[in-house]
């Protein structure tokens, strides 16, 4: 796959990070004119919610005919924003992936091996700096073995009942909105060796554009060593406008454009891709409860007539699907993301498989 195709195809403050680390709670709102319930998300060491819903029983084993993805196993590394996105009653990503033939599992708070440098299970740590621990750190071999072999649900969504039995072949990984509070300058070059953000959270004081870019550059070595896996980086959702500054929001925009347009420019393989979840959530259809999926205007990252369309200059740099005090995307925003992401994922898979 050419780089042109990919081109066309995260300190937030300690308060926000701690507020985000209280655990996940699914939002049952389906887009009415009421404010969504306040959930929570990661930002440093996170505590799981005592009210986390038990995983939903498996669904229909029959995938949508003709999608070509039957038998592929996919795992999604996330916290509560990802949990909401997967939920049948919120973003619908889980059932949409099922309909396209993917067998889906996921990780959540308290999942996986305990990591000495983090002080707990790796699943509780999904900030940008933590991706180095997951994929490149001294205990990454045990982490990756767990990621590749996981087949269980840790959130609420309908999925295929029949496990194909192989390792996970597609790995989606996403940080949460505190990671959109980036300091530094959008023009800074990626940090190289001795990056102080490695293994650190978004409230560490090292969360800058340059350090975040350096983390993602570090990951490419491990990704290149695993061409039989497709790694999809999903950008962190944007912050509600009252929860960030203009400078941090502009940095988030620049960082996510860098991921889409520059990160993979010299990467020679087709097993890494990006979905700009942040960008998709920066324009709406008139309110946080009305999306602009399918519209010609607005910000999008989607497949149109077989070509990747990336529009990023027709909205704001803050969330268009959030209410004051809660940056979790509303169901309308998550549903827009599902509509744009799943066909794009199919396209990424086809490029990776050489179809």
What string gives the helices and strands in order?
A: HHEHHEEEHHEHEHEHEEH
Largest sheet: 5 strands, parallel
Strand order of the largest sheet: 2-1-5-6-7
* Unreliable stretches covering 5 or more consecutive residues: 1-57, 60-66
Radius of gyration: 18 Å
Distance between the termini: 10 Å
Task: Give helix % range.
Answer: 25-40%
Got a strand count? 9
Question: Total helix count?
Answer: 10
- Indicate how many domains the architecture comprises: 1
Indicate the overall shape: globular
Beta-strand residue percentage: 5-15%
Name the structural class. Answer: alpha/beta
How confident is the prediction overall: mean pLDDT? 86
Structure explained in plain terms:
With 355 residues, the protein is α/β, with parallel strands linked by helices. The protein has one domain (3-353). It is 29% helix and 11% strand. The chain has helices at 3-8, 14-20, 80-86, 93-99, 130-135, 140-149, 209-224, 246-261, 277-280, 331-353, and strands at residues 73-77, 103-107, 114-115, 120-121, 170-174, 230-234, 272-275, 300-304, 307-311. It has a five-stranded parallel β-sheet with strand order 2-1-5-6-7, covered by helices on one side. Strands 3-4 form a two-stranded antiparallel ribbon. It is globular, with a radius of gyration of 18 Å.
